[in-house]
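Could you please consider the sequence and fold appended to this message?
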Amino acid sequence: MRPVSTRLRAGLLATCTALTALAATGPASADAQAAPQLNGAWGPFTRCPVDAPAMLAADGRIDIVQCIASHAASGSIKLGSTEVVTGASDLQLGVVQHTTGAPTLVAPAGGALIADSADIPGGLLGLMCPSDIPVISDICRGITNATLNRVVATVESAGTPSDFNLTAGATSGQPIIAIPVRIHLQNPLLGGSCYIGSAAHPVVLRPQNVTAPTLGIQRFDGNGTANTAGVMNRLSLVDASQTDTTFAVPGASGCGLAGMLDWAVNLKTGLPSAAGKNSVVLNSASTYLAGLRAPGTVVPNNGKLLSEYWHSAVR
């Protein structure tokens, strides 16, 4: 590997203070505006995009509209040689079922997937140090406190999911959905744009149930109140562990000034990493699907009624 020039090394270290100040400001959270609380059976669907044009346009005959919500209490993700224990994750989508073909998935404005952030074990010291490369050695010596060392990883949406298979969600051993994501690595020295994966080259997760979930069906009124004669149906697929070991992981990008630390992150974490060397686990996953019980009776207002009922359940 070519030696790093003294000028480059000095320039990189000179940006540390500025990057620290920038990271302290932090990007605005995609979930800055709290999701509403919904009554009764509507409870899991806080981010369903009921007002999206494709949802509102569903007539109930050719196009039938539904909401999906899937929540996992915890999990883990292994990328290359780095494994991170993760917190809760929440996937929500609108589904437009077409009598003429495969369904269309509609993501909420803030992205289909929202997940808790997690700390990378060992922080920046664990990602890059020790090193015999001068520029990295200088950074290693400069990590003098927990703030500079801590690296926070957040799984974010990198596009609208696809390939939804409801039958796979009710059974085991088949991919349920394809979810494009990227992993945001946040640390003062890495800057604010350090990612594993991107919109152009995402990590695509295809979780499947390890064992079949527990199935339940509930009818309820438009405002979420349980009613055995209600106009709404909710399908529940609960208490399932999910996994995926089939995805590939690209290298990191945007890490450090002008991406100068991409190679350092990739070298220590074993990225890029081919399919079969990575894994994701979701613990205690619960998935719900809700829609009108008899959409054919409300033609052409299926989408408009779903939106009206959803809003009537907001507390």
User: Anything to note?
Assistant: Residues 302-312 form the longest helix (11 residues). DSSP finds nine helices and 16 strands in the chain. Residues 50 and 283 are 28 Å apart (CA to CA).
